[in-house]
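pasting input
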Amino acid sequence: MTDDAWTIPEVAVAVDLAVLTVHDGALQIMLVRRGIPPFEGMLALPGGFLASTAEDLDAAAARELTEETGLGTEDLHLEQLGTYGAPDRDPRRRVVTVCYLAFSPDLPTPTAGGDAREAILLPVDEVLDHRTAVAFDHKKIISDAVERARSKLEYTTLGAAFCPPEFTMTDLRQVYEIVWGTSLDPRNFHRKITGVTGFLVPTGERVSRQVGRPAALYRRGDATVLHPAMLRNR
Amino acid sequence: MTDDAWTIPEVAVAVDLAVLTVHDGALQIMLVRRGIPPFEGMLALPGGFLASTAEDLDAAAARELTEETGLGTEDLHLEQLGTYGAPDRDPRRRVVTVCYLAFSPDLPTPTAGGDAREAILLPVDEVLDHRTAVAFDHKKIISDAVERARSKLEYTTLGAAFCPPEFTMTDLRQVYEIVWGTSLDPRNFHRKITGVTGFLVPTGERVSRQVGRPAALYRRGDATVLHPAMLRNR
DNA sequence: CCAAAAGTGTTGCTCGTACACCCATGA
DNA sequence: TCATGGGTGTACGAGCAACACTTTTGG
């Protein structure tokens, strides 16, 4: 590191959140509608500047998560996605934003009321469509977030992070199908997942969804990596 | 994003470089010895603060690369590794550093003289050893860089980025063996790599290394992903 | 009984590993 | 000629796609 501290330019550091969830049969992302310029009224990722010089980046991400979406940080996967710092990305001043990626189970009442600000859930296909306008460079960030999520399902057990605490094999398979936009053979999927030691723990319970044979219920296990990996067809 | 611009804390944004290369039979990382406090005299990653408010992060990384190591940015893989921003990571003031990862072919004269500052090449095993002191949180960054490199060899063609423009199959295999710290079957490796379309382009030339049958020379191809992937034994 | 969903068995293929074997060179 | 490294052939097994088949429920 060079240390010409007297020439250090003024840069504002922000933290943004790409919170993905599977809702209503689609991969959706949590967005807020901006109340002030620039990009007033436009969709944007929830986020904000560091609260103080002493605030850790991860802590800032967790704080923004609760503040803006009403979600708790416990039992929710949160990882750094990347840092975006093009000089002209914010017209007001130089802003470098560290973006975090979160996977959330489907929410009963998606932060409609309460202390959360106006958080909206929108399908990523719709948000990434060229007709949808998104503030700053957030469309690119969302695109990166979705690609990261798709890739993570291949070699980690994070697909289960989209499921409630207890879920069926079909619930998990539908996460994969929706995130990847493909269809998977239920029988091979079942065999494959049960073959990964530590991915799922059977609760012993069974649940009947509408019609047909009741499905076994599972909880998330300790495994974090998926071995062998679950590759999508490309 | 919230927009309480008047409360934005002062944060310095730096760019650090984790330049990895395979040299002398070991995975090595480029470091500099700090000339001023804090951590004076200690080993650190090359890097520095943004040159101006208008400088792009990627551009700053490329600039630091040439300034501190004498390496050109063309024909060298450079990607963002991650951002490190613990509040106490720099005792002087709050610094958030965006770290970039670079893969370099073995260098004939490793920036010994010329316009480059005092850049040193050290084996990562030695640097990561608990007896070696490294400035700031750079040991953690180096550890992340090495893990990322190991993982990237599995599913991308970036192993060839450690090789000179023309190289033999054995050169490439040794990159894998050294980076992963394993030994690979030369015959199966050969078949596997030649089976990936677009990874290597044979030049038609052959070269004789000391003794034995001469090896075919290859150049890097257009492929970036390795399919099927080359998984290490874990 | 029938439809529908859950789960098991089986087959054929792709790919990886292990290793026998041949090829081309320097000493 | 032998040692050394480059490269091909082949056999066995793991893992996966495709799909026939059985199990268990609601109507």
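fyi The longest helix of chain A spans residues 138-155.
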